[in-house]
Predict the structure.
Amino acid sequence: MPVTVAKTAGFCFGVNRAVDTVLQQLAQGRKLYTLGEIIHNPQIVEELRARGADAVDSLEEIREPRTVIIRSHGVPLATYAALEQRGLPYIDATCPYVKKIQNIVASQVEETGILIAGDAAHPEVQGIIGHCRGDYICFRSEEELENAADSMVKMSKKSWVMVAQTTFNAKEWKKCVETAKKLCTNAKIFDTICKATLTRQSEAAQLAAESDVMIVIGGKHSSNTKKLAEICGRFCPTLWVETAAELKDFSFRHGLRVGVTAGASTPVGIIKEVQKTMCEIEKNLDEMTFEEMLDASFKSTYTGERVKGVVTGIAPNEISVDIGTKHTCYAPLSELTSNPNLKPEDIVKVGDELEFVVLRVNDVEGTVMLSKKRLDAQAGFEKVMKAAGTSEVLTGVVTDVVKGGVLAITEGVKVFIPASLSGVAKNEALDQLLKQEVRFVIREVNEKRHRAVGSIKDVLKEERKAQEEQFWSTVEVGQVFTGTVKSLTSYGAFVDLGGVDGMVHISELSWQRIKHPSDVVKVGDTLEVYVKDIDKENKKISLGYKKTEDNPWEILKRDYAVNSVCKAKIVSMTTFGAFAQIIPGVDGLIHISQISNERIAKPQDVLTVGQEVDVMITDIDFDKKRVSLSMKALLDEAPAEAEEAADAE
């Protein structure tokens, strides 16, 4: 029964500093008060009380002029003032990471709203609130933050600042950050989760993923210990204990891989005590007498036994099973499947006979916890092992994003897929794979540790290679494709045709002159293109995007005729006339002699750029792409005749 203890289990820097502060004062023979329990560990608190450090919940409980120790969680600003007013000496043992958060909120002006990710009932958060100068909103989850949206609007703050309790769940924090950015785009966000907490949570998740059972040690009032238990519980059965004595209530068996971690308030002594107890349990398993084994054989069932049972009921989070004993048997949803998208009714129906493995027997309460997932995993791991190093493609669902990659479940087996083999670009989040079905190959397996490493990237690479081969064997000039714009350059746009990229030259993007491809398309756009030219030797394809029917000269030929009248927009001037746009892409020339009935020195005497005028199309040369226009043809001839008569006189 291998037992692995997490490297970061036990006191964190802030807790260690606070406890050392108390011990140093006690060593000098002083009696103390700690404002609140110095840490959330009843054993340490009781030990310190016996040595002369009494914990009080408020200053009103202080009856003697002793030194007051402010614990690592910190206190509101008003508490410092109250201590000064009463003349009580105090030592501030607030964790530096907590002090940093207090300084951040205290430095904001009253008009700035404060968003605090944390438990409002926790002393650390109460201390942070006590340093806020204006309005604040406290929330424990993304959902609670969304529910606070109306309150944020009513406060009409010009700006918001967001911080987190040092022990806040890192995964939930990421969700809250995204929500905050949507609710208030100008929010200033400070990631104040203690780095030691992040490391501890990440390490716990990794260890739980490799273990059959996790033991989390820490006080029942400890926030960070509670979060560790929640994280570990997502991977395997988890026992949350304060002391080693509680382990006697649980049944262990040979071969179980046991992981141990501890909250930031758990002393090394208790962790060692748990290790010692686990060693004794393992020794007892090895040294069962014949009489003990005989007694065990008469038990109705035992942990690790494979049993057959009939499904008798289905609830939202578990199923009831009859295995032919007096126990109430059940299998939680988490032990039915590792697929987070499935519900119990998707997996079984009442009356189904299935095989399970017994996870836990509680003879006192008369209950038995069963697992179908663990049994499936045993058979599944054999399949995974056979697939290692071959090209066999397995299908699984991504259940968790962990440090360095993701975990996918296939055949009930957890497969670790490193970020570099996930198929996700470096600058993109792995969260996009969460709860998604993925296809991968097995790169390597560790039979002893029941670990497997997979690669989505290898599958994508092979699929893309097959797509390319298929593409080059069938592509022809004139063939039409629907593709996605992959990237833009100054000379054109590269389009993904489904495994192969082709380029649309900037001149092929529009019938009008454009300065840059981004004037017409952007990355991610879907385009219908056709093949203009193929260079199979160099694997290059030239694409066309402009449609013949969109050619402005074709539109002119279809909709405009010689001697027809239309509106045109003056776009430029020359000494011999003005150019006017008939439709986008087609300009015509109004010769200076065709602008007015009267003689003019230059077009600017009558026209301005941007002016719209009525013109007659007098000639079209489609070969040379020239159009002649006349304003004069639409004017009354009388002024010209009068001018000629005047000249004759």
Summary: The chain has six domains: 7-92, 96-193, 299-371, 376-425+432-460, 475-546, 553-645.
